[in-house]
Amino acid sequence: PRAEAGRARRDPGRPADSRGRRPGARRGDKLRRRAGVGGGSPITGYESLNAAQVKSRLKDLNPAELRRVRTQEKRGKARKGVLKAIEKRLAKQ
Predict the structure, then answer these.
(1) Is the distance from CB of 91 to CB of 74 less than 8 angstroms?
(2) Distance in angstroms (rounded) separating the CA atoms of residues 25 and 3
(3) Distance of alpha carbon 20 from alpha carbon 49, whole angstroms
(4) In Å, what is the CA distance from 33 to each residue of 7, 9, 81?
(5) What is the pLDDT of residues 61-90, one digit of tens each?
(6) Would 55 disulfide with which of 8, 60, 66, 85, CB 3.0-4.6 Å?
(7) How far apart are CA 58 and CA 76, in angstroms?
(8) 31-60 tens-digit pLDDT
(9) 13's torsion region: left (phi>0), alpha (psi -120 to 50) or beta?
């Protein structure tokens, strides 16, 4: 019991670190896209991610996927920072 008291409990619904990164989530997104599975969004769990988490995943997307995320964002939360980051990535490609 004493050893357990010192261990941090992990809540599976919470991010792994203070920056909101979930280990393996980005790699899982890549693998699902490569296999052609995963549903509508190129980013798994998109609706539950905050702006920083979405922006951190944009660099793994190709232009077509970026446009899909842009459309999804415009129809949903319409976060200015996310939309600006998408436009910036599209301009680079």
Answers:
(1) no
(2) 30
(3) 9
(4) 36, 32, 24
(5) 999 999 999 999 999 999 999 999 999 999
(6) 85
(7) 17
(8) 665 665 656 789 989 999 999 999 999 999
(9) alpha
